[in-house]
Amino acid sequence: MKLKNFTASDMAEAFALVKEALGADAVIISHEKTPDGRILLTAAVEDDEELLFDEREELEVCPARRIFNDSVIRECLDYHGVLDVVRDRILSSARRISAEKGVFEDRKLLELCFADIFSFKNILDSQMPVKLFMGVPGSGKSTAIAKVATRAKLRNISCCIISADNVRAAAGTQLKAFADILETPFFEVAGSRGLFDAVKSLNGRYDLTLIDTPGINPFSEAQVDKVSGLSEAVRADVVLTMDAGKNTLEAVEIADIFCNIGAKLLLPTRLDLTRRIGALLSVASCCEMSFCAAGVSGSIAAGLAEVDGKSLAKLVLA
Question: How many of the other CB atoms lie within 10 Å of CB of 183?
Answer without folding.
Answer: 7
